[in-house]
Design goal:
Layout lengths: L2 H8 L6 H18 L5 H30 L17 H19 L4 H20 L6 H10 L1 H10 L4 H32 L4 H5 L3 H22 L4 H21 L4 H27 L1
Helix pairs in contact: 2-3, 2-7, 2-12, 3-4, 3-5, 5-6, 5-7, 6-8, 8-10, 8-12, 10-11, 11-12
């Protein structure tokens, strides 16, 4: 396998679900902040920045988890775990992607640049939280949702309260979908001493996933009300609620494949919310 293909796998460009789960809340915020179609420059900066930072985050995650991944069924073929790439190569890739992201964000305003530094810190430190934090998925939700305040900062030059409300909604959504993901690895994580919400919630895991979806939808509803959105947005939220209900149905048996299917399907939850915002601000 060529180096390029190995690097491609390192940053998970062959598995774009992570990019989508990071991109949807960013797009929510961009269109909400612009109250219409955002400037092309800002839209391109944030889409490319999302791809670059998610890729850098994957490289850092695999660097920190390289000794653990070898013992987890789902991750034992990752390129650092198998030795196909050296650990230092992951650091070089992450650094290169980080500098590219920096070049993009420098074309925005000072507040966005400041927030980008916080976002970079979150991306780098997330893998460490799995070592000691009982619900690292909450920290993931902050990291994956930090494009929300950045979007408002880039477009409006400030961060209104609704941006933080959307960020909190994203945190609960991330706990829901990443718990589904963690349910796939629960047995391996228990054996290796890795923390996850699936372990913390225990036999109440499905209940907590359902509650997190519920809180997400409630907060998104409040955000829509604050933004003055009408029936199209709330119809889209109803569709997201039906998608979430389907996920709960899939994970009730705690089958690994079903839980992973539910996790992957969350892109449609995020897409439905985006369609609702788009219909409101572009109509």
């Amino acid at each position: 396998m060529t180096k390029l293909k190995l690097y491609w796998r390192l940053v998970r460009l062959d598995k774009p679900i992570g990019i989508l789960l990071l991109l949807w809340p960013t797009l929510w915020a961009l269109f909400a902040a612009a109250d219409g179609f955002p400037e092309w420059h800002i839209l391109v900066v944030f889409i490319l920045g999302t791809i670059l930072m998610r890729s850098a985050g994957c490289a850092m995650n695999d660097y920190f988890d390289r000794d653990v991944d070898l013992h987890v069924k789902r991750t034992q073929e990752r390129v650092l775990a198998t030795g196909a790439l050296a650990p230092r190569e992951a650091l070089y890739v992450a650094a290169a992607l980080g500098f590219m992201s920096l070049g993009l964000v420098l074309t925005t305003n000072p507040l966005t640049i400041l927030l980008a530094g916080v976002a970079a810190f979150l991306a780098v430190t997330y893998p460490l939280f799995k070592r000691f934090f009982a619900i690292p998925q909450a920290y993931l939700g902050i990291a994956f949702g930090f494009g929300i305040p950045m979007s408002f900062a880039a477009i409006q030059g400030s961060i209104p309260a609704v941006a933080w409300l959307l960020l909190v909604a994203n945190i609960f959504w991330a706990i829901a979908y990443d718990t589904e993901y963690a349910m796939v690895d629960r047995d391996d994580d228990i054996r290796l001493g890795v923390k996850s919400s699936a372990i913390t919630f225990g036999r109440y895991d499905v209940l907590f996933v359902a509650l997190c979806y519920g809180v997400t939808l409630l907060l998104l509803g409040v955000a829509g009300d604050w933004l003055g959105y009408g029936w199209m947005y709330f119809a889209a939220l109803s569709l997201s609620a039906m998608i979430a209900a389907k996920h709960i149905q899939w994970i009730r048996g705690r089958d690994r494949q079903a839980c992973f299917k539910a996790f992957l399907h969350n892109t449609w939850f995020g897409a439905a919310v985006f369609v609702g915002i788009g219909l409101e601000v572009l109509s």
